[in-house]
Amino acid sequence: MTSRLFAICFNATRPSVLARFWSGLLDWELTDDPGDGIAIVPPVPAGFRIRFLPSQEPRIGQNRAHFDLTSTSAEHQQQTVARALELGGKHIDVGQLPEEGHVVLADPDGNEFCVIEAENKFLAETGFIGALACDGTQEVGYFWSEVLRWPLVWDQDQETAIQSPDGGTKITWGGPPVAPKIGTNRLCFELALPIGADWKAEVDRLVSLGARCTDTGDGNGSRAMMLDPDGNEFAVRWSAAAEAPGIASAPRRSSCPSRSSDRHSPPNRR
């Protein structure tokens, strides 16, 4: 059994402020979170939740990942931008050109996101969150395709993209040049194992695909942290801890096996 994408996590200086912003912008419901953060969930069962975890680490440079929000029309794009500004977002300049059709904004914690023009065919029929656009190598795109068992829907010029077989949000990596990683990422993936799955077997699988363990669990045995081939942090947690606080079966201690050897822009199809 493989783990699934349970959540996109924001390390936030003001989790409650950020949760209210994204809840209002996406029209997702605020919900109780299995931990010390806040979460919002989509209106349909499929997909991932977004978690906002408290962090006091300073933000350094642009994030390695950002959301691309889709538009059904020019008016819809303008409405999304206006709504974001009303909720506390702001316009920012990341080097976009005047003739480009997308609008670049930042949320109240400074995290970049784009509101894409309606004519974008690559994000057609993906939903409101069209993509999580990441700065990353072709290798890391292949890695996540194997981890999630999501097929590649784009693989050209070292740019890659994957999407769930059920559709929805795409995850893209822009290929070289990849900016050096500085500090801990503001956004990271959180995976959840199905109830009854073999924890050690899944961790071994992730390591065999190129992940590395950091051995920095959350202290109660419900989550372990790992790094992907580009050095991006991600978490693996037990479904019992992730989905229902009353369901038990997570081990008291989680650990990773030892291993002997251990552009801001998404793929440009706008």
Summarize this structure briefly:
With 270 residues, the protein is an alpha+beta fold. It contains five helices and 16 strands. It has a domain of 138 residues: 2,3-Dihydroxybiphenyl 1,2-Dioxygenase, domain 1, CATH 3.10.180.10.
What does it look like?
There is one protein chain. By secondary structure, the protein is of the alpha+beta class. The chain has a domain of 138 residues: 2,3-Dihydroxybiphenyl 1,2-Dioxygenase, domain 1 (Roll). Helix content is 20%, strand content 29%. It is built from five helices and 16 strands. The strands form two sheets. Strands 2-3-4-1-13-16-15-14 form an eight-stranded mixed sheet. An eight-stranded mixed sheet has the order 6-7-8-5-9-12-11-10, covered by helices on one side. A hairpin with a 5-residue loop joins strand 15 and strand 16. It is globular.
Give keywords.
single chain; eight-stranded mixed β-sheet; disordered C terminus; 5 helices; 270 residues; globular; 2,3-Dihydroxybiphenyl 1,2-Dioxygenase, domain 1
Strand order of the largest sheet: 2-3-4-1-13-16-15-14
Q: Strand count, sense and closure of the main sheet?
A: 8 strands, mixed
Using only CA atoms, what is the Rg? 18 Å
- CATH topology name of the domain at 1-60 and 185-262, in short, is 2,3-Dihydroxybiphenyl 1,2-Dioxygenase, domain 1
For this structure, the quaternary state is single chain
